[in-house]
Amino acid sequence: AITNEVWLTWWLGDALGAMLVGPALLTLLPPRPGSLPGHLMSSREQALAWSVLIGVGLLTSSPLSPLNEGQSPYLAFPFLAWFALRADARQATWATLCLAGLAVWRSGAW
After folding, report:
1. Residue 66, CB-side half-sphere exposure with 13 Å CA sphere
2. How many CA atoms lie within 13 A of 108 on its CB side?
3. Whole-model pTM?
4. pLDDT tens track of the chain, all 110 residues?
5. 73 within 8 A of 58, measured Cβ to Cβ
């Protein structure tokens, strides 16, 4: 019985890691010729988006946060949607990886 739980935890963690790290590694490749330009955000909007995303990530992952622990992780979703709709795939992927890193840091898994 415990073997099944360990196996499930292992493979879920492995699959989620591949889903986060794989696209981030693919964004390091140079863009293909003829691909669409992805930067819809101005540099000012990019700075604001990254600042707000990291601030919300730290707020939701802090043990001292006054927010309800059950619902606070959902505060980051609108800002991830902001990246997905306004930025290119590279920035949206790295924003997701950044929030995942903050969540792992919060869980104390390492």
Report:
1. 0
2. 2
3. 0.74
4. 688 888 888 888 888 888 888 888 888 888 777 766 666 778 898 899 899 988 888 887 776 666 666 667 678 888 888 888 888 888 888 898 888 888 787 777 54
5. no
